[in-house]
Write a structure and sequence with these properties.
Radius of gyration: 22 Å
Distance between the termini: 61 Å
Structural class: alpha/beta
Low-confidence stretches: 1-27
Order of helices and strands: HEHHEHEHEEEHEHEHEHEHHHHHHH
Largest sheet: 5 strands, mixed
Strand order of the largest sheet: 2-1-3-10-4
Number of helices: 16
Shape: globular
Length: 337
């Protein structure tokens, strides 16, 4: 009796084994990809759609996502090999390049194409003009990061010198900016969604302008990896880009409410209507990239922003730190809706 049961058990294992392995292997060869995102944000909605809708799995990839808070920490994780792919501002790849890295970091798929922050005021201002910031206390972002540089770029565009025309606070850690503002620091603050919408609901602030609209197209948040990883995992990078392209198309084809419902598991403490309003804001101002390819005009705008902030040693050509071949191939395989 025992031998019979053992035989049945072994036969069951033989039949179940392919199915069990199927969860780890797509078309016979699954590949694990460790991704570090600079923060958890509705700004990155297409990434979460790619995960939730199974687009990475369709490409035979097992993507493991972790939040590596802050650009410096994210880049350190990438350079040390703790992650394979980083989702972070394109400026970080330039910083690494400026330091003379032997294994440079290459941008291969942009996720967002504008700044994602909004100007929030304590009081509702119906007819806001940027000149109203003169002499004000402004709670900005970390020096050298894209939010701060794009913020300063916008201020200078409107004739405001961020060093002399207002009191600029930028010594608060990214994770603590919203809490600092809520506790009374600053008259104005630069915030991402969904925090901006949450403050509006709670009566703690009012969105009065968009830095994304003001600063123009930028390769703001991009998937990047080390040149060596790209060389050794060319097919993996292509499959990864294909999945992102599918997700970008999906977001463009669906309503903010539908996108909010899909990404909700990544924002368990945020109400669905707040997620929906956040997605709607980003869609309306074109923040979600409609293609993973980085346009030369957008790259040059990034260089202008960094130059204005005093963070650029020399202008770096797009093809030096970006490879659009993956995005172009993905666009051919998955055309825009």
């Amino acid at each position: 009796m025992w031998n019979k049961r053992l035989a049945v058990f072994l036969i069951a294992i033989i039949f179940l084994l392919p199915a069990l392995l199927g969860g780890c292997r797509g078309d016979g060869q699954s590949h694990r990809v460790r991704v570090g995102e600079v923060t958890r944000s509705v700004f990155y909605a297409p990434q979460y759609v790619a995960l939730e809708k199974g687009f990475f799995q369709e490409e035979g990839l097992n993507v493991e996502l972790q939040t590596t808070a802050g650009g410096d920490k994210t880049m350190t994780a990438l350079l040390s090999g703790a992650i394979d792919v980083a989702l972070v501002g394109a400026e970080t790849s330039i910083y690494v390049y400026q330091q003379g890295a032997e294994d440079p970091v290459i941008n291969f798929a942009q996720l967002t194409q504008t700044d994602g922050t909004f100007l929030v005021s304590r009081e509702q201002i119906d007819h806001f003009h940027w000149s109203q910031l003169r002499g004000a206390v402004f709670l900005g972002q970390r020096k050298g990061g894209m939010p701060q540089m794009a913020g300063e770029f916008t201020l200078r565009k409107h004739g405001i010198d961020p060093k002399y025309d207002l009191e600029l606070i930028q010594n608060v850690d990214f994770a603590n900016i919203a809490a600092a503002y809520a506790s009374g620091t600053g008259q104005y603050v630069q915030l991402f969604e969904p925090q901006a919408s949450i403050f509006e609901r709670e009566g703690k602030g009012h969105v009065i302008a968009s830095f994304g609209t003001e600063s123009g197209r930028l390769p703001y948040t991009v998937f990047m990896t080390k040149q060596s990883y790209m060389k050794n995992n060319d097919e993996v990078v292509q499959k990864f880009t294909n999945a992102i392209r599918k997700a970008q198309n999906w977001v463009q084809e669906h309503t903010p409410a539908e996108t909010a419902a899909v990404i909700a598991p990544f924002f368990k403490d945020t109400d669905l209507d707040i997620l929906e309003s956040s997605v709607k804001r980003y869609l309306e101002q074109g923040s979600y990239a409609d293609s993973p390819a980085i346009a030369e005009e957008a790259w040059n705008n990034l260089l202008n922003v960094m130059e204005g902030a005093g963070e650029l040693k020399e202008r770096v050509p797009l093809n030096e730190l970006a490879d659009n071949k993956y995005a172009e191939a993905a666009a051919q395989a998955h055309p825009s809706p």
